[in-house]
Amino acid sequence: MSDFFSGNNKNIRLWIVLFFVAILFSTLIYKLYVLQIKQGEHYINEVKLTTLRDIPLKPQRGNIYDRYGRELAVNEAAYTVNLDPSATAENINSVLLNLVELFDKNNEKLLTELPITTGLPRAFLFDGNEDAQKRWKEDMGLDASLDAEQCYNELIKLFEINTLLPNETVYKLVSLRSSLYEKRFSKYIKIPIAYNISQNTASVLLEKSTEFSGVTVETEQLRKYPYGKYLSHILGYTGNINQDELDSYGEGVYDASDLIGKDGIEQAFEQDLRGKKGIEHVEIDVMGKRVNTFSNPEEAPVNGNDIQLTIDAELQKTAYDAIESALRKEQISRLTTAKNFNYTTQDIFENMIKSDNIRIRNIMNSKEGTVQGELKAYIMSIEPEAMNDLEKARTALKYGYIEGPISSSQLILALYEQGRIFDDDNVITRVKNGDIDGNTALILKLERDGGDITPQMTGMDPCSASVVVEDIHTGDVLAAAAYPSYDNNELVNDFNNEYYISLQNDPTTPMVNRPFTEPKAPGSIFKMITAVAGLKEGVITTNSTIHDNGIFKDAGQPYARCWISPEQGVQGTHGDVDVAKALEVSCNYFFYSVSYMMGEHSGNSTHGIDTLNKYMRAFGLDSKTGVEIYELYNSMNDYPNHISSPDYKDYVMHLYYPDAQSWEYNWTAGDTIRTAIGQSYNNYTCATVTKYISTLANGGTRYSMHLMNRVISPDKSTVKQYTPIVEETIDIPREYLDTIYDGMYRVTTGENGTLKKVFNGYPIKIGAKSGTAEESSERSEHTTFAAFAPFDDPRIAITVYVPFGSGDSYPAPNIAKSVISKCINMTSSKQENNYNTLLK
Amino acid sequence: MNNKSIFLKIDYLLIFLVFALSFIGVTVIGSAVKINTDGITGPYTSQIMWICTGIVLMLVVSVVDYRVICKLYPLIYLLNIILLVLVLLIGREEHNVKRWLFGIQPSEFAKLFSILYVASFIQKVKEKINKPLIVGFLVLTMIFPIILVKAEPSLSASLVLVAILLSELFIGGINWKYITIILLIFVPISIILYIDLLNGEHKILNLFLRDYHIDRLLTLINPDPSDPNYYQTKNSIWAIGSGRLVGKGLYNGTVNRLSYLPESYNDFIFSVLGEEFGFTGCVSVLGIMFFIVLRCIKIAVNTSDELGKLIVGGVATMLAFQAFVNVGVATGLLPNTGMPFPFLSYGGSSMWVNMLSIGFIISVQLHSKPKSMF
User: Percentage of residues in chain B with pLDDT exceeding 90?
Assistant: First the structure.
């Protein structure tokens, strides 16, 4: 033993070394056993989590067609330019600068997602959404207290952008770099920076791909709305999903990069149109680059269903164009010949400054040597702070115009410079030289159909209208035109934020879907309901006559009058009228009497209105029309009753006149008789009235209104086919109907027909009724029109609303004339063919 | 002793094991540098070249009598010091470290030189090794190369030198008293250093370790996910762990293929092996290495020459120590330090030194008389 430990036995010591090595290696093997055998499964998952990403494959969204198979919303393949954050080079700024310059040269539109305005003074483009602004600043690592200008400058510094470049280029670079920066933690996601570029630009980018490292060109499906403004309100548009929408659908259905229907049919039929997302699995390397892609057929995307609407797109177009044309005529009439509610070109220019149709931001960002530059110089001389306060700039411009230093011609020339209106250079020169006066130029551009100053731009009364055309036997909505409108192509794919904000600020509210959401008093087009009620309740017969005394005194003060104009200071009268004549001449007195008699019948003060309400409900005035898109009554769930009734009066009075005396809440006989002629608390959308006219025209069957005709699967088979829904049937004896129809026929043809002049020589026989309603004594009355056609075998019902449109040019009936002609004269055989090609 | 008997005496199993390890190494390096997708590239062909030249060097050395070489041990020591000084003066700097001199790494050669020097010295002084002055002189002369290597800096190589010195002293018959004394000093110091490491200021460690060494030590104790060292270790563990029993197959290691492994063909070659060949592959490679060490020990035991025993024992220690540290780092058992796995990792100098070392073992086997015939 002592020899062993004395150090002489080297062999023993060598074995000890080996033993020591054996212990160390055993430790390693134990560690490997733990990692690979015991925890192997865990590490496999960890590796998968890091290296594998599920990338959603987007299905193609379903198309939308009109009733004849015309394309209303389609997907078009287009070249899209993306930035690949994982492949961007060190010299990213110079790559992007080349890109911007190429785009400028080829006139391509770059997607600028930067939520800051291009022009000065810089402002945020969050549309007042504070949360969105806060979130963006957090994402970009910017201090929450910074304003738009400061944020912009911080970003220039952060991205080291050369500020000697032109301002617009700097802006674009900041925007592009910001988009990249926002995605810095998920580099495998590509960032779209331009949609729909030309073949030419695409080939330059592809050829010089080494110069443009990190820039990729791909083909992508873009949403197109071939009818643009004509159908924007009905179709809506698609856009990036927002947080609220994400939350409402819950986990796993949508992700933050998805598009979703934002309005109209796109929103209402989202579930049908969207299709089913597919998944592909991609492997991500340590740089965040995509290395491999795995996909299996079961996870392939399923394209969305197509939707075929009941809409006739050409009819819709006709209606819209007819509206614009009629509004032009009425505005010109008020500029030139009208005696009442007339205005001047100065009023229009003033209004266009006020409504920002002469864009103040453009003026304040204009260069010297332009007309806008002159305006800017003037504004600055009056209001030194105008640069930072556009409201003050606008006011200065307005007073400059009213007081004289600024001329109409200058304003017209500013509109040319802003690209709001167009002309040949020689015309513009003539305006500059004074050969054409600014006021004349305005009239010329306003009066011609298609002229680029529209009734919407002037913003003068009347500048809006609704038209609804319905198939009376099915409830199909054939057309539902809203004026003014907007171009949904601007809001789809690359959401044009500045355009959107200008729409939001436009006083003519072009985004409002008027036919379904703008209620107005219908006026005399209501009278057929009173007629049906009177006949059915036995208050009158088809032959009963009532003498028009001009002033109706039975219902107490203030007395209601017949509308017929006084002659030599004496209230006019229609004489003895029966129900048909009452409709022909629109005799208020007759309908006052009928409704009053319904009340006297029992001695109960509200019996008259209760009876009338029963018929109003039967004709659907208190309910939704049934269309699949948003309509007025969706937001009116807390209304006790939507029709002119004691309950509703009570509700409205409490809402708007909480301090009224208690007796003022009570329903009066005066309310009843005014309700009977479509005034009082009557307030319905154009669509609601159309539904009532349809019900009347088909003899009493009330169909739900609807826009969806059928849903077609990607393999072209019908998934859903709409079948008409009867909501209620009103039993109206043929005799009554014929009498009412006769009265309506005589409106356009009778000796004393209220629209005889307007429809003189009109080739189609129709049953019609016109109406007016006063909303404000300062402004012209609303004009309404309702009809069914053709008279002998009615197929369609139409209602036209022109708010504040009552005037010498009869806009409402004139719009209806164009629409009815288009609708009835249509040869449908060819279109029927088209209809069928949508299916397999 | 005729030529015929020389060839009969060669330990062919040892040579086969070394070849096997080198072959596995070059195959895994091929996967690490993605020859399947990127084509045959530099490191792969270089490694093959180094294996081939290494074999030649091994054969040349094996026929030379090691005792003749070891007679020149003061010159070997001097050459070692000169090379290590030169690399610090005129060496090529890469990533803040100076390890390269005319394409070779003197720190790798220092391992072999030190084995020969220490062995020769101990053999020379025989029993006097237990005299404090003598052992003190040996330790002192070895401190120079250790410091010079550490100055490059190459902490791992200097640790190898320490291991070689300690191991040869042990085999050379150092008295157990010294061992007891060293343990009595070393254990408390370790505890103190450990406490210093946990203490944020590192007052003691800062005296002889650089910040990044301390960071690596800390990473081991207290992993911080954002730390790049932890990241290396974590990815290595993921790669090895996810290989499970039989691995994902050659070229199929996800972590390797997607470049999540840093230094995959060098210090972390074992991670690629672990991912693609699994527990089976890892145990096989460690098994081969253990057999190599076992053969060395047997040769050392069988030889009657004291010098031969010391040299072979030193080589066995060098190989085993490097393999242990390399795998220990790859599996997260040890702090992250760049240690190559002998014959497996990429690298010319280390391949040559390891091959030369095997050459010395064969030389010992061939030129010394066996102590006994069993």
Answer: 55
Closest chain A residue by Cα to residue B257: A285
Residues of A in contact with B244 (CB under 8 A): 36-37, 40-41, 44
- Cβ–Cβ gap A28/B309 under 8 Å: no
Q: How confident is the model at residue B372 (pLDDT cuts 50, 70, 90)?
A: very low
Give me A281's structure tokens: 């699995």
Q: Which residues of A touch B243 (CB under 8 A)?
A: 36, 40
Task: Please answer yes or no on whether A40 and B320 come within 8 Å at the CB atom.
Answer: no
Q: If interface means Cβ-Cβ distance under 8 Å, which residues of chain A face chain B?
A: 5-8, 10-11, 13-18, 21-22, 24-25, 27-29, 31-33, 35-37, 39-44, 46-48, 50-51, 283-287, 291
Q: What is the DSSP string of B206-257?
A: GGTS-HHHHHHHHHHHS--TT-HHHHHHHHHHHHHHHHTTT-S-TT--HHHH
Model pLDDT for residues A583-637, shown as the tens digit of each residue: 999 999 999 999 998 876 555 667 889 899 999 999 999 888 999 999 887 666 6
In a domain, B289, yes or no: yes
Torsion of CA B120, B126, B132, B136, to 10 degrees: 0
Q: Is B56 domain-assigned?
A: yes
Per-residue pLDDT averaged across A678-684, rounded?
Answer: 91
Q: How does DSSP classify residue A676?
A: T
User: Which residue in B237, B257, B328 is closest to A28 by CB distance?
Assistant: B328
Provide mean pLDDT across the span B166-194: 87
Q: Are A64 and A235 in contact (CB under 8 A)?
A: yes
The beta-carbon neighbor of A43 closest among B242, B300, B309 is B242
Q: Do the chains contact at A28 and B173, CB–CB below 8 Å? A: no
Tokens of B177: 């008293």
User: Cβ of A28 and B286 within 8 Å?
Assistant: yes
Q: Which of A17, A32, A283 sits opposite B316 (nearest CB)?
A: A17
d(C-alpha A416, C-alpha A412), whole Å: 6
Buried/exposed code over A609-641 (b: 16+ C-beta within 10 A; e: otherwise): bbbbbebbbbbbbbbbbbbbbbbbbeeeeeeeb
- Choose, out of A19, A28, A42, A51, the residue to mutate when testing the contact with B (most B CBs < 10 Å): A28
Gap from B147 CA to chain A (nearest CA, Å): 25
Name the helix (H) or strand (E) containing A770: strand A767-773
- Hey, what are B167's tokens? 């191991």
Q: B255 falls in which pLDDT band (50, 70, 90)?
A: confident
pLDDT tens across A633-672, in order? 766 665 556 789 888 888 888 888 888 887 888 888 889 9
Nearest to A586 by CA among A799, A461, A471, A752: A752
Position B118 in a domain: yes
CB contact under 8 A, A46 and B242: yes
Length of chain A: 840
Instruction: Count other C-beta atoms under 10 Å from residue A126's C-beta.
Output: 17
Q: Which residues of A touch B333 (CB under 8 A)?
A: 27-28, 31
Residue A315: Cβ-neighbour burial (10 angstroms; 0-12, 13-18, 19+): buried
ipTM of this complex prediction, to 2 decimal places: 0.92
Tell me how close the Cα of A175 comes to any Cα of chain B, in angstroms: 30
Number of domains in chain B: 1
Residues A458 and A353 sit within 8 Å (Cβ to Cβ): no
Using CB atoms, which residue from A29, A286, A291 is nearest to B286?
A29
Q: Given this model, what pLDDT does residue B3 score?
A: 53
pLDDT of amino acid A308: 95
| A827: confidence class by pLDDT, cuts 50, 70, 90 | very low
Task: Look at residue B157 and tell me if it is in a domain.
Answer: yes
Tell me phi and psi for residue A726, to 5 degrees.
-90, 120
**Residue range(s) defining the domain that contains residue B304:** 3-367
Question: Quick check: B164 contacting A, CB < 8 Å?
Answer: no
